[in-house]
């Protein structure tokens, strides 16, 4: 399929929100049911974000029919979130209460009249039917298709228990199963709350001025170019550019930074940010579905649908594990009686093995952790674009930083101007006139300095301008050829640099400044030292990373001396200087050879190749640049490195929790299965082992909501 075709299909897919999805297995069944609906060509369920994408014609009623087996509720993606009933009031939990009451009454009757009496048996049977009705419908359907999932295993176990006269245990299993499913629903909803809360950040209406009229308009009807009036204390509903007013905006919702930022005319502002003190008029620049906040929500939802490597392993494992458990249970039920064992005792043991063998805890062990971690990160201004990147970030051993714009502010400033005969204004005018044609970031520093000094460099006529790759530029001014570039360029031109100039250059480079030289083919006329200011957070971030055992490397195109001065100031463990963009790429490959897991942090524009070559590419300032959001695996929404140690901490914690979950799920199964040997495994223990494991695994994953900086 061509890219064009794929795009077309993507656009035709309509999204709906799904309420009530609790397990990956149910999501797969729901997806298949939707695919079979008349008029539907394709369907895709995103379990993490709880959404279904449908291509073709269908209605919400039809979709709810397809999800009736789990009592799923469907609503249009754009619809406001409906307030959920409190957990204890939910309809699906009422049958659990009824079933439990019947169980207690039957137990009491059993004590009065004896367990074999008809009254307790009827009570238990009613309890089983009320509590397990929907379970049996699913289980028997699956059994007819030879699809052995959890519902099938539980159905066989409960019906088997009733057949061999263990009515009380059958009823207890039904209730414990129903309770655990309800709790699982509750914890899964909790894990998804991070995204739901992101959706509520931006208002659904805004005050728009059209002509002389001001009116409240729903965000779907706001056009690009509309003027949005934002009063103090209000949140912005759309992205745009300030056209009137000055105020401070709290951008925590987008960037995770709690310190308000001052915004004035021509500054970019984002939907979901809070206007603190002044009245702002904002010209809308993006439609509601294209705002930065919408992009974040979309990317987070996509990320949660991505399978993490450990999830892929678990799914594969469960595929073989479930049939193996069914065969094992059958052998336990049939083989010992053939050699003189008691049929009802061994059938009971076989049923208990079926229950304990449910792979539920195992299957849910990874997705809940991934959904929770990615949701938490998004609320803290970090976009992690998938479970795989979350896990990879937890494995990182080394992180390379692009110097300019990442460790430094990326705005170079002229600090020194050195001439031998005091005509610095005249020479600065020539330098600025030549550099006007250059795209190099250092050129802008020279131009800014010339403007500050009030020099008229625009009037100077330039001829034969030519760029000398990686070294500088040359041009003719008043019929004389001038060169502006690095000291290396003049060493090539002149063979060597005069010793007093050489000393000047070395001195300035040792202070961490980059030296640019203006001269002719015969002599050096002017030295200009330029420095890039260090970000306040850089030193602290590097120190935190070094403390947690991550090797930090600084990559820069600067010369060795300048790089060493800055590297020392910031505290990185290694410095690589004089690098062209392709050298950065090669160095990342080299570093991967040494460490295997290497991160790269850049501003996402000129670092794209290196970001792509690293195991985890981290882009800074994602809120303003689409490139950063597109090319990186992780985007720090603020233009601030301080989120990086938090991201590593969260990823490592997620990895640890996933490992704990998988180990615990398998260990508890193993222990329960060993109880079969002496015949100690009861249905009670089996269901507690299975449900207890599922709940503990889910609750363990929810600890990721608590990870803070």
Task: Describe what you observe in this structure.
By secondary structure, the protein is of the alpha+beta class. The chain is built from 26 helices and 26 strands. It is elongated. 47% of the residues are buried. It starts with a helix and ends in a 7-residue tail after the last helix. It is 51% helix and 19% strand. The model is unreliable at 1-11 (pLDDT under 50). Strand 5 and strand 6 (213-218) form a beta hairpin. The strands form five sheets. Strands 14-26-25-24-15-22-23 form a seven-stranded mixed sheet. Helix 5 (118-144) runs antiparallel to helix 6 and helix 13 runs parallel beside helix 26 (683-702). It is a multi-pass membrane protein. Its EC number is 7.2.2.21. The chain crosses the membrane at residues 117-136, 156-179, 320-339, 351-375, 656-677. Belongs to the cation transport ATPase (P-type) (TC 3.A.3) family. Type IB subfamily. Keywords: ATP-binding, Cadmium, Cell membrane, Ion transport, Membrane, Metal-binding, Nucleotide-binding, Phosphoprotein, Translocase, Transmembrane, Transmembrane helix, Transport.
């Amino acid at each position: 399929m061509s890219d064009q075709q794929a795009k077309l299909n993507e656009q035709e897919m309509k999204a709906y929100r799904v309420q009530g999805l609790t397990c990956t297995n149910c999501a797969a069944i729901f997806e298949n049911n939707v695919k079979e609906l008349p008029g539907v060509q394709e369907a895709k369920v995103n379990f993490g974000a709880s959404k279904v994408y449908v291509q073709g014609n269908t209605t919400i009623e039809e979709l709810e029919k397809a999800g009736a087996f789990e009592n799923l509720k469907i609503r249009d993606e754009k619809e406001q979130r409906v307030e959920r009933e409190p957990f204890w009031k939910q309809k699906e939990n009422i049958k659990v209460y009824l079933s439990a009451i019947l169980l207690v009454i039957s137990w009491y009757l059993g004590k009065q009249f004896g367990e074999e009496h008809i009254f307790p048996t009827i009570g238990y049977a009613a309890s089983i039917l009320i509590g397990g009705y929907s379970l049996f419908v699913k289980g028997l359907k699956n059994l007819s298709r030879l699809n052995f999932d959890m519902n099938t295993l539980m159905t066989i176990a409960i019906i088997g228990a009733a057949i061999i006269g263990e009515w009380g245990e059958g009823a207890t299993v039904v209730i414990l199963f129903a309770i655990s499913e309800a709790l699982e629903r509750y914890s899964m909803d909790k894990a998804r709350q991070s995204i739901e809360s992101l959706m509520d950040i931006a208002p659904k209406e805004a005050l728009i001025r059209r002509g002389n009229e001001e009116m409240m308009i729903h965000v779907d009807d706001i056009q690009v170019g509309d003027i949005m009036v934002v009063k103090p204390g209000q949140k912005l509903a759309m992205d745009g550019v300030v056209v009137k007013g000055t105020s401070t905006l709290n951008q925590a919702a987008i960037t995770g930074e709690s310190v308000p930022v001052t915004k004035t005319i021509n500054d970019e502002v984002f939907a979901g940010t809070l206007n603190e003190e002044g009245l702002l008029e904002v010209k809308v620049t993006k439609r509601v579905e294209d705002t930065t906040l919408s992009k974040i929500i979309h990317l987070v939802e996509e990320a949660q649908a991505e399978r993490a490597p450990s999830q892929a392993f678990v799914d594969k494992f469960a595929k073989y594990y479930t049939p193996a458990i069914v065969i094992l249970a059958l052998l336990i039920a049939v083989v010992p009686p053939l050699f003189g064992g008691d049929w009802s005792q061994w059938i009971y043991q076989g049923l208990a093995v079926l229950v304990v063998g449910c792979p539920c805890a195992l299957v849910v062990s990874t997705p809940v952790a991934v959904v929770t971690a990615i949701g938490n990160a998004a609320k803290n201004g970090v976009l992690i674009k998938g479970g795989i990147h979350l896990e990879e970030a937890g494995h990182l051993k080394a992180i390379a930083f692009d110097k300019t714009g990442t460790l430094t502010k990326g705005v170079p400033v002229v600090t020194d101007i050195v001439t031998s005969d005091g005509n610095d204004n005249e020479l600065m005018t020539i330098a600025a006139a030549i550099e006007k044609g250059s795209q190099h970031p250092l050129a802008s520093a020279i131009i800014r300095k010339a403007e500050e000094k009030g020099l008229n460099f625009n009037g100077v006529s330039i001829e034969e301008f030519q760029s000398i790759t990686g070294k500088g530029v040359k041009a003719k001014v008043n019929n004389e050829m001038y060169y502006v570039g690095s000291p290396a360029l003049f060493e090539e031109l002149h063979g060597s640099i005069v010793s007093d100039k050489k000393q000047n250059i070395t001195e300035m480079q040792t202070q961490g400044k980059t030296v640019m030289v203006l001269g002719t083919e015969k002599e050096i006329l002017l030295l200009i030292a330029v420095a890039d200011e260090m970000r306040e957070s850089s030193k602290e971030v590097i120190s935190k990373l070094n403390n947690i055992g991550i090797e930090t490397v600084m990559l820069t195109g600067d010369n060795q001396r300048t790089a060493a001065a800055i590297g020392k100031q910031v505290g990185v463990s290694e410095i690589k200087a004089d690098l062209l963009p392709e050298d950065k790429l090669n160095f990342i490959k080299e570093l991967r050879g040494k460490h295997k897991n290497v991160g790269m942090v850049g501003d996402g524009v000129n670092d794209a190749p290196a970001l792509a070559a690293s195991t985890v590419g981290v882009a800074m300032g994602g809120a303003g640049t689409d490139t950063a959001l597109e090319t990186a695996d992780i985007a720090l929404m603020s233009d601030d490195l301080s989120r990086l140690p938090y991201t590593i901490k969260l990823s490592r914690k997620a990895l640890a929790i996933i490992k704990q979950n998988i180990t615990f799920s398998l260990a508890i199964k193993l222990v329960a299965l060993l109880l079969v040997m002496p015949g100690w495994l009861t249905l009670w223990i089996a269901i507690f082992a299975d449900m207890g494991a599922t709940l503990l695994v889910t609750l363990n994953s929810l600890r990721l909501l608590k990870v803070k900086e």
